[in-house]
Amino acid sequence: MSTRTTNTTDVLVIGGGTGGYSTALRAAALGLDVVLVERDKVGGTCLHRGCIPSKAMLHAAELVDGIAEARERWGVRATLDSVDWAALVATRDDIVARNHKGVEAHLAHAGVRVVRGSARLTGTRTVRVEGVRTGLAPGALTETAPGVRDFTVRRGIVLATGSRPRTLPGLVPDGRRVVTSDDALFAPGLPASVLVLGGGAIGVEYASFHRSMGAEVTLVEAADRIVSLEDADVSRHLTRGLKKRGIDVRAGARLLDAQVRENGVHARVRTARGETRTVDAERLLVAVGRAPVTEGLGLEAAGLTPDERGFVVPADWKRLETAVPGIHVVGDLLPPPSPGLAHASFAEGLLVAEALAGLPSGSVDYAAVPRVTYSSPQTAAVGLSETEARARGREVAVNTMPLTAVAKGMVHGRGGMVKVVAEAGGGPVLGVHMVGPNVSEMIAESQLIVGWDAEPSDVARHVHAHPTLSEAVGEVFLTLAGRGLHQQ
């Protein structure tokens, strides 16, 4: 391990989100001296404004939905008195705070020097951090003197500054009537009505949450279907499930304009049929995607230029290294095929740290990275959709099975399906797609199936527990392997 000096380090990571802190932890574990610069809180958007708080709230929404199901379907005479918003928020914030302390403790234990401030490149191996300040966990190895720090980096610089919500022209988020996905959970109270712009995973999750909490919800998506990056059958089943819950799903629709008023937002929407419809809602939630954050990063000082979309494109995807040797990029700064998901950025961080330590470098298998929407119903997928597989010239065999065709699916009574796309003639599995309850917990098996290029006959040899929802996965593969049992 190199001798540490105040302003010299082996690895300097700019950004303390999932990609950044995973890089720092792995690099430190490999014996490298690591500095992690973060201008806000380690954990980034995922921990503080995205994945963790939103899934905590969605769990609360599941509990609310369960009360209605108990009463309406199972004869349990339960009623919902009210939702104590302050108590719900307190539980959410406690979960976030404990996770935050855990990340800080991991970094401190690993010996990562955490510097709080704003970093910018001043060269290919130099970084300036301004506004350095204190404020992390007691005992953390944190730079404490305020002001400016200049660092010289021996091995490599890792760019991990993440992304921010996009908005639309003329829509200025105010945190109250017009909110983005970053501040939607922190807006005051529960609105009685919400207009959600954007039918991707984030927009669908927020639409689902607010509907569970009793709001009237309109979901507007410009593409011809929601979750348009997923298999068309996933979109169809999800749309059906959301509409069944009373969400007004408007695909192929566009916002014409919106006026913010004292009691809410008045919007005009052009529907897929070309009609103009007015929507009045207490809150307008903008979830039209995220943009990479590179402003103030000083890319030009190192000879780097983002592409026209703002992404920092690697010259070497196996090492996630830019055209400037020794400068790597992880997380939301990466363009596709990186999916901009927290769990993908963990894998990217591990890869970059190991490359910087001189270990043999593979690459992230993005085709085997699972994609999940935590709405009700949930969606989960890995690999190619049927359309993508055919577009790549693959001859495919496709099999779909409704979850209600297995006993546990009948117990849940919420519909859903499992769809498998495989190469024709018994070839490898190309993609697995699911909609239904708890499918986020079912996708891991399919991740291994796709990642290991398994064939349907390989999966069909293994026995799935009965009665479980995962039986549907087993049954789909049995049929594709020519051994269909309950499905012919």
Structural commentary:
Its cofactor is FAD. There is one protein chain. The protein has 488 residues and is α/β, with parallel strands linked by helices. It folds into three domains: 188 residues, FAD/NAD(P)-binding domain, CATH 3.50.50.60; 122 residues, FAD/NAD(P)-binding domain (3-Layer(bba) Sandwich), CATH 3.50.50; 104 residues, Enolase-like, domain 1 (2-Layer Sandwich). 29% of the residues lie in helices and 26% in strands. It is built from twelve helices and 21 strands. β11 and β12 form a beta hairpin. The longest helix is centred in the N-terminal third of the chain and has 26 residues. 47% of the residues are buried. The N terminus is likely disordered.
In a nutshell, what does this entry contain?
This protein has helices spanning 18-29, 44-48, 51-74, 85-110, 201-212, 232-244, 342-356, 386-391, 407-412, 443-451, 456-460, 471-480, and strands at 8-14, 34-38, 113-121, 126-133, 147-159, 163-165, 178-180, 193-197, 216-221, 248-251, 254-261, 264-270, 276-281, 283-286, 290-292, 327-329, 371-373, 378-383, 396-402, 417-423, 429-436.
User: End-to-end distance, in Å?
Assistant: 61 Å
The CATH superfamily name of the largest domain is FAD/NAD(P)-binding domain
Domains, number: 3
Rg over alpha carbons? 24 Å
The CATH class label of the largest domain is Alpha Beta
Largest sheet: spatial strand order: 1-2-3-4-5
CATH architecture of the largest domain: 3-Layer(bba) Sandwich
Low-confidence stretches: 1-5, 135-140
